[in-house]
Design a protein that fits this description.
Blueprint lengths: L1 E4 L9 H5 L4 E3 L5 E3 L10 H10 L5 E4 L10
Antiparallel strand pairs: 1-4, 2-3
Length: 73
């Protein structure tokens, strides 16, 4: 799973950091930052999905997974 954070939408509710502290961190004003590249480890997906659902301003977006290339014969 890969996610993107739109910091311009963030209103600093902090729910994402509460649900997935390994993926999101808060700055001194309470606004979120992505910890890492946005690539979510399988063991952290549940908390990140909860953060996606609970973000009141929808500042967290999932990115489509790249589809494997189909070999032609």
């Amino acid at each position: 799973m890969k996610i993107k954070l739109d910091r311009t939408l963030c209103d600093g509710f902090g729910l994402c950091a509460a649900h997935a502290p390994e993926t999101f961190s808060l700055d001194e004003w309470g606004y979120v930052s992505l910890a890492g590249t946005g690539e979510v480890a399988p063991e952290d997906e549940e908390g990140v999905r909860r953060a996606l659902l609970d973000c009141p301003v929808h500042a967290i977006l999932t990115l489509p997974s790249p589809q494997p290339a189909i070999a032609s014969s």
